[in-house]
Amino acid sequence: MSNSAIVPYLQIAYPIMVGIWVVASLALNERAARHPRPYSLKLPVDDRLPFIPVFVFFYFSAYLLGNASYLLLFAHPIFPKVFSGYLALFGVGVTCYFLFPCRVERREALAPTTIPTQLLVAFQQKLKPYNSFPSMHVAFCLFSALMIIMSGAIWLGIFCLGWAGLIALSTLLTKQHHLLDVAAGAVLATSVVLALR
Prior knowledge:
Layout: H1 3-33, H2 44-48, H3 56-60, H4 62-65, H5 68-72, H6 79-99, H7 115-126, H8 136-150, H9 154-173, H10 179-196
Helix pairs in contact: 1-6, 6-8, 6-10, 8-9, 8-10
C-alpha cells in the first residue's frame, strides 16, 4: 500500500493516539505519586534559575506547537513519518514515566494574584509534580518544528524552532521541569527526527 493510501488512516489514528497518550500519562502521573521514592534530577543550576510566572503562556502554547506538524502536514506526503515520529515519542515517554518516575520541585504555594499565577495554580491542582523526565513539552515541540523544516517549509520551521526554544525556557522559568528533563526532551526529539530521515 502506498503512502498516499495509508495517510487517511493515520490522520484518523492520530487523535486516537493522542487520547491514549493523555489517559496513559495521567494514569502514570497518579502512579508516580504513590511511588515510595520518586527520582529527582534537580541540579544546583536549577535553583539559580529565576521563577517568572508570565512564561506560563509559552508553556501552555506547547499544546499548539506540539501538534503543529500534524495540523500543518495533515495532507503532506511526509505525514506517515510525522505519525511514526509521534508514535515513537509517545512510546518512549510512557516507558520513561513507567520505569523512571521523576518528581520536579515546583512552586506549589503560589498566591493566585495574577493571571499567570492563577493559570499555574489551576494546572498544578490538576497534575501532580511527576512525569517530568524527559520533558515531553520540549520533545513534542522540537519534533514538530524539525518535521516542518523537513517538509520544506524552512522559514516556518525556523520560526517554530524559536518558539520551541521559548517553550523549553518556559518549562524552566515556571519550575515545571529541571534542566536535565529539558535536555533529555531535546535529545529524544532530535534522535527521532534523525531516525526518520
